[in-house]
Amino acid sequence: MKGPLVIPALTLCLYCPVRSVFCAELTGRVVLTKKLSRKQVTLPAYQLRGVSPTAAADEHGESANEYAAVAVYLEGQLPGPEKLLRVELVQVGQRFEPQLVVIPVGSSVSFPNGDPIFHNVFSLSSAKKFDLGYYPAGQTRIVKFDEPGVVQVYCHLHPNMYAAIVVVPNRWYAKPGDGGSFTFHDVPPGAYRLVAWHMNAGFFRRDVRVAATDETDVVVDIPVREAEHSR
């Protein structure tokens, strides 16, 4: 008998214990079984626009934390966000910190310049187009995000600078922890679409059903092939 075939994959293991007839807790874990990030190649700014470059290795050549490059969230007939946020995407050391931000729709992002040089933050993404112009150290610009989607952010002056803002439609979203785990609390029973987005590999989706009367256990295996993904 042949042994099992191992396929490099991004795996989401979901478990939903029942708390009441009205809601459930959905917990999961992102398992990265193939290394996705490569050392970034710096391209001219006009080549970078609208393109998601690979996550960079840090200045010491160490690999990027792959879980920090992942966002997971639910789509479907769910209530909108309960609380809007204002978060910071700081420009420091000629890079964005953090490189990935996840916010509910209607929230805002501040782009403070922490470098002693000018920056010019912009995006050409369909979910939100903006150009904040040149501004010096100590100043910031604020952008509100009214539509869900992925917004890829760059700097006109420094083509190696890249970040992504994932704007989600409701309050059920997460960036996995160091071990890839995440939890969605108080999910109403129903059928939804679980969405995982990786900064290099793009979107992966799987239909899930959260039940109020039965335990739900779902495993999603997603082969990661560089030529077969969408952003």
Please tell me about this protein's structure:
The protein is mainly beta and 231 residues long. The strands form 5 sheets. It has a 5-stranded mixed sheet with strand order 7-13-12-9-10, with no helix packed on it. The protein is elongated and about 60 Å long. It has one helix at residues 45-48; strands spanning 9-16, 24-32, 70-75, 86-88, 90-92, 95-97, 100-104, 108-110, 119-125, 128-135, 142-144, 149-155, 162-168, 173-174, 181-187, 190-198, 202-210, 216-223. The chain folds into 2 domains: 8-37 and 64-79 and 171-231, Immunoglobulin-like, CATH 2.60.40; 81-168, Immunoglobulin-like (Sandwich). The longest helix is centred in the first third of the chain and has 4 residues, at 45-48. The chain is built from 1 helix and 18 strands.
The CATH topology of the largest domain is: Immunoglobulin-like
Q: What's the gyration radius in Å?
A: 19 Å
Q: Total strand count, please?
A: 18
Q: For this entry, what is the oligomeric state of its chains?
A: single chain
Q: Tell me the helix content.
A: under 10%
Helices and strands, in N-to-C order?
Answer: EEHEEEEEEEEEEEEEEEE
CATH architecture of the largest domain: Sandwich
Biggest sheet overview: 5 strands, mixed
Q: What integer is the average pLDDT?
A: 78
Essential attributes:
five-stranded mixed beta sheet; 2 domains; mainly beta; disordered C terminus; 231 residues; Immunoglobulin-like; disordered N terminus; four-stranded antiparallel beta sheet; elongated
Q: Can you give me a brief rundown of this structure?
A:
The protein is mainly beta. It is 2% helix and 46% strand. The N terminus and C terminus are likely disordered.
